[in-house]
Amino acid sequence: MTTTTEAAPVNATPANPADGVHDRLERARVASRALATTNGDVKNRALESLAVGVVDATARILAANAADLANGERSGLASGLIDRLRLDESRVAALASAVREIAALTDPVGQTLRGSRLPNGVKIDQVRVPFGVVGAIYEARPNVTIDIAALALKSGNAVVLRGGSAAENTNRELVSVIRDALTSAGLPADAVQTVDDFGRDGATQLMQARGLVDVLVPRGSASLIQAVVTESRVPVIETGAGVVHIYLDESARLDWATQIVHNAKVQRPSVCNAVETLLVHRAAAERLLPSVLSRLTASGVTIHADEAVAALFPDTVPATDEDWGTEHMSLDISVRVVDDLDEALAHIRQHSTGHTESILTEDVAAAERFLAEVDSAVVMVNASTRFTDGGEFGFGAEVGISTQKLHARGPMGVTELTSTKWTVRGTGQVRA
Length: 432
Description:
Blueprint: H1 17-36, H2 40-56, H3 58-75, H4 79-85, H5 89-104, E1 112-117, E2 123-130, E3 133-138, H6 142-154, E4 158-162, H7 168-184, E5 192-194, H8 199-207, E6 215-219, H9 222-231, E7 244-248, H10 254-266, E8 275-281, H11 282-298, E9 302-305, H12 307-312, E10 317-318, E11 332-338, H13 341-351, E12 356-360, H14 364-373, E13 378-381, E14 401-402, E15 410-411, E16 418-425
Parallel strand pairs: 3-4, 3-6, 4-5, 7-8, 7-12, 8-11, 9-10, 9-11, 12-13
Antiparallel strand pairs: 1-2, 2-16, 14-15
Helix pairs in contact: 1-8, 2-5, 2-7, 3-7, 5-6, 6-7, 10-11
């Protein structure tokens, strides 16, 4: 009996892979022109059809995912990637829910950002427009397939996906559901393409497709992101690794510190907004660390400690110089005692990847200084770093969390998938 994981790919592999990728990119470019002027109601009908389709296809999706998980276990895929790869009924339902949240958002296309009228009567407006074709390269994250496709559709973009071999079966099913949803709403199925069946060559050609692909978003390990940034000829919005810090200031509340640090590390340690380094003011270390670290170790967290931490809490392993720059993505955390806020800020400047940092304090001046001086995409006061997320920010989902400073920074939603253009309306005026 043939299983769902053995179904033919959505786009059959052609005889000449090089020509095949180019052909799909050309078709995505054509489809993008139709989407750019599509009415918001039509886009929302497609999104509702997608949400329904995801739920209806749950059994197929989970069967395909089980095959990917088995392959991942056999190939020794890291535990963090296995967690990101894994789908269950609740995660599939969450994908459908995110699609509906995206549909409920205001359509950014056509919004006027600013405008003016010249003394001669010429009217000038800056309006939001789609990028056109968005490329995405990611690994072991089937949720990204749905999230990016839904955000691209809402913002009027076509999308070309390279989801990696680890999630190949799952992504095939998801792309099939997406393309069916587009067709059901009268939109071109070619607005969502996958190059997964071309393997690494598909990713390479996607990175080289300047002129066909307008922007490329990588999501995954630091090595994957760096490879895309280095090799791509297409403009890249860089999403970064998360060496995320929490600093416990001298006045930090014990109950908040214990609860927030535990949540930021343990709730889902494999994601980029999980805390990796805990810094503690020396004057508060004896008061805070026993409770904070006991709660962590009770949940299986390994404490990588400096000497001052180990003296207060012996159940640790020695921290190495490499630990301070490591995104563990596991039940590990690096912990250091610092003399004061100045030393905490210096440590963050040296080791942060610019993702998310949080201070726990009741000192308003310290909080405001931390917010002002920390140069990361998201800076928090008295909150878990796990809130750095497009869904939590009200975006429905996210394309990724940008750690660059051009165009978009932090969680990226539908607005971040748009550019702008200027419209000029005259009545026969000429320049003097």
